[in-house]
Write a structure and sequence with these properties.
Helix 1 packs antiparallel against helix 2 and helix 2 packs antiparallel against helix 3. This protein is mostly helical. It has a single domain, classed as Methane Monooxygenase Hydroxylase, Chain G, domain 1, CATH 1.20.58. The longest helix is centred in the first third of the chain and has 37 residues. It contains 3 helices and no strands.
Amino acid sequence: MAHHKSAIKRIRQTKRRTEVNRARRSRVRNYVKKVELAIESGNAQAARDALKAAQPELDRGVTKGVMAKNTASRKLSRLSARVKALRS
């Protein structure tokens, strides 16, 4: 257990950050899942709309430090390719 005042404060801050980051990560995953479900259903329009909604969420995850830039870019690229393949 922490004995210094600064260490106790650090524990409080870490707990809060962890909750916030967990919520952000979960939010990003939910948006990605919506795109994947739309792709599986075969509805091209719904998939496009879901992808449009997911893109800013992925970008926000990067700016908030929840995921790496390349990770978000890779996910977006793969989802875009799957949505595009759905049209043809």
